[in-house]
Structures are given as C-alpha cells and as structure tokens.
Amino acid sequence: MRKFLALLAMLGLASVPAAAQSIGGTYTVAGTNFDGSKYGGEATITLTSDTTCTIHWETGGSSSDGICMRNDNAFSAGYVMGKEIGLVVYKVEKDGSLHGLWTIAGQNGNGTEVLTPK
Questions:
Q1: How many other C-beta atoms are found inside a 10 Å radius of the C-beta of residue 102?
Q2: Is the pLDDT of residue 86 over 80?
Q3: Cα-based angle 43, 111, 85 (whole degrees, multiple of 5)
Q4: Residue 71: predicted pLDDT
Q5: Domains in the chain: boundaries
Q6: C-beta of residue 67 within 8 angstroms of C-beta of residue 57
Q7: Rounded distance, CA 22 to CA 117, Å?
Q8: Which of helix, strand or coil describes residue 31?
C-alpha cells in the first residue's frame, strides 16, 4: 500500500503543469545582442510572492538587476544596467527554460535570450 501511495504521489508531481512550477532559482544565460553577437552568463531569480520576483544577471562582464512578474507561461522583467533601462519578455517553456526578447529604452531593435535552469 505504501508503494502504491508513493507511486501516486510521484505521478502527481510529474503532472504539475509548467505554469504551477516555481520559477525561482539559478539559470544559465545564452543570448544575442542587437548586432547578433553572442553573450553568456548566469541569472538568479528570487521569488517575492506567488507571481513577482527579483532578477539579477551576470553577463558579458556586466551585471544588471530588475523586477519580474509571471502570468501563466508569460514572464517579464524590467531592469537597469548602468544608466540604461530595459525590458525583457519571456515565454516559459514546458522544460522550465525561458525564451525571450529584450530591448533597451531609446534604442532600435532587440536581442534574444534563453534562460536554462541549472
């Protein structure tokens, strides 16, 4: 009976939809700049409520901090990097990775970024 209950519990956890999974944690960053050049690094998301968080990036020799929010499979963050203000919008994928586009206020174009859970 215990094995049966343990199996049911594992199956229940395995079927939790991506929207219900916690987004907090450390991620590997892989991105492209406006000109197509690549960068990498690490991001840390810290939950502040069920839907809000803070995010810190260490990428390409620079760091930035922001606030973030999740709504189902949409995840967005406003951030500051030096004197620049930016916005990134991600789609939360079923594997827990975040695929997004980012921009900086007053500049044309956008970059891309993928956050992969560590």
A1: 19
A2: yes
A3: 70
A4: 93
A5: 25-117
A6: no
A7: 11
A8: strand
Question: What integer pLDDT is reported at residue 21 of this predicted model?
Answer: 60
Gap between the Cα atoms of 76 and 93, Å rounded: 14
The arrangement of secondary structure in 25-117, i.e. its CATH architecture, is: Beta Barrel (2.40)
pLDDT tens column, 8-46: 333 333 333 334 468 999 999 999 999 999 999 999 999
Dig out the tokens for 35 from the structure: 């000109």
Specify whether the backbone of 29 is left (phi greater than 0), alpha (psi in -120 to 50) or beta. beta
The chain-wide mean pLDDT, for the chain, equals 86
Residue 112 near residue 100 (C-beta atoms within 8 A): yes
Encoded tokens for 71: 């709504």
pLDDT reading at 5 higher than 90: no
End-to-end C-alpha distance for the chain, whole angstroms: 35
User: Which residues are CB-neighbours of 13 under 8 A, at least 6 positions away?
Assistant: none
